[in-house]
Design brief:
The complex is a heterodimer of chains A (147) and B (62).
Chain A (H helix, E strand, L loop, with lengths): L6 H10 L7 E7 L7 H12 L5 E7 L4 H6 L7 E8 L2 E10 L5 H15 L6 H9 L4 E7 L3
Chain B lengths: L8 E7 L4 H6 L7 E4 L4 E4 L4 H13 L1
Antiparallel strand pairs in B: 2-3
The chains are: A alpha+beta (147), B alpha+beta (62).
Chain lengths: 147, 62
């Protein structure tokens, strides 16, 4: 497959990634069946991850890695899990991207990487206080479109 | 980024065109559209952080 990111874009992302603090581990879940965007997504993420040594990529398959998919609550493809990595320890911050992060979402993808890398949600103190009080699962799905 | 503060919170950005069945089920017609706990709450549009917090609080009381 040809490269998806051109040199100019790579240069810009590389520049933005100088702001990365802690390592970020991306887990890609794909599927060989019924997944129109899996190949492009995997390729795109591979190119992005290659732009910083603070980033790593793990490629998994929903069908052949069901227990890992279950652990990360993944049942659709492509899904990207943006986790923290400290030494060899993977920390799941509950951040997921479903579908190919292209168009506007590409920017969100890069920003999400930076946020997970900062290990700081950047939220207001009142929001943080509220979130600490949550004692049952909360599942948020933010629907977006690339245009 | 609400998910980062509490391991019980999971946040997904879903590409609506790629998952039309899911988008239809939650009657997503404009974006961004945030679905809380499979429909216990819905937030349409880009809203301030405090509005989202209020919506999560309401959804959890259902």
């Amino acid at each position: 497959m040809d490269k998806l990111l051109n040199e100019n874009v790579e240069k810009q992302i590389h520049e933005v990634f100088t702001g990365l603090k802690e390592p970020v581990h991306v887990i890609f879940f794909g599927s060989k069946e019924n997944c129109e965007y899996c190949d492009d997504t995997r390729q795109l993420v591979k190119e992005v991850v290659a732009l910083s040594d603070k980033l790593s990529l793990e490629v998994r398959d929903l069908q052949t890695d069901p227990s890992l998919a279950g652990q990360y609550n993944v049942d659709k493809t492509p899904t990207l899990v943006l986790a923290g990595k400290d030494s060899e320890k993977i920390t799941d911050y509950g951040v997921r991207l479903l579908g190919i992060p292209s168009g506007h979402e590409f920017t969100s993808f890069i920003q999400d990487i930076l946020l997970v890398s900062s290990r700081d949600s950047g939220l207001a103190p009142a929001t943080r206080e509220f979130l600490k009080t949550i004692n049952k699962p909360v599942h948020l799905q933010v629907f977006v479109t690339p245009t | 980024m609400l998910a980062m503060e509490n391991p019980l919170v999971q946040a997904e950005m879903v590409e609506a065109m790629e998952f039309p069945t899911l988008a239809d089920r939650h009657q997503v017609s404009g974006v961004p559209h945030t679905v809380i706990n499979d429909g216990a709450g819905n937030v349409v549009g880009a809203v301030p952080e405090s509005n989202l917090v209020a919506a999560i609080r309401d959804a959890l009381q259902k």
